[in-house]
Amino acid sequence: MAHLFSINLNASHKLVICSNLRYYGIKTTPKNACYRVRRTWRGSMLQCCSTSSSSEQLYFADQKVKLEIENDSENMKQKIDFLVCEYGWRIRRLIMNAEEIKMAADVQAEAFHVPVALFNDLFFQFFKAEVLSGLLYKLKNSPPNRYACLVAENDQESSKQLVGVIDVTVMRDQDVLQHLPDEAQEYLYISGIGVSNAFRRMKIATALLKACDKISNLWGYEFLALRAYEEDIGARTLYTNAGYQLVSKDPPWTSNWIGRKCRVLMIKRISLLP
Predict the structure, then answer these.
(1) Domain ranges (residues) in the chain
(2) Which spans in the chain are helix H?
(3) Which positions are catalytic?
(4) Would you say which domain of life the source belongs to (predicted)?
């Protein structure tokens, strides 16, 4: 399922673009500007033709997009079709703006921070900054059809409150490929799954994993892989119920004897839709 964006800007005409594209990023454009559409690598770009120094660009790649430029609004509005709408949660791709990126990083930081005895609040702030930096790096440096940050929000609330996050990345690690058929050259790796503490055990993680299946189909990858700690029975049960199968675990010389927890590798195969 592709996202659908409807963007209203103050202009003297209407422009509609519908194509099978994937969203990369959005920036605002000046008033009373003219526009042209040209093909770019892996997608299309709507570029402002104004000579004003304040002109910006709209970038898209591989997603269904609908742009409507009308003169009845000065504010940019977005309507998004969600990848999954189940259990009271809507899953979509992260919107590229500072506020939402920070919210997503906060959710992941809350989920993965390990409390310490002394100066826990200080260490948590450092950890949040580290998570935010990592997310920004991935968003900036990853092609839009090889990395996606998916977020969950309540489908009953008008205000955006992100309650879950998951990362989807195209990878080709030989440690995983050795468990796949010879024709499989790449796969989708699932990581960074986090749910806000106040919303645990509400099927948010299940909905996020289903959205990963949709991304896998959309990008044309038959296999998904993830890792979990061997002792984390709750997480492993979640992944098993989502269709992932245990295929291997870390060798003992890379985990227990140096104090690291042993991880297991789990893989899921999906049927690609025509």
Answers:
(1) 1-81, 84-269
(2) 98-112, 120-141, 174-177, 204-219, 233-241
(3) 239
(4) Eukaryota
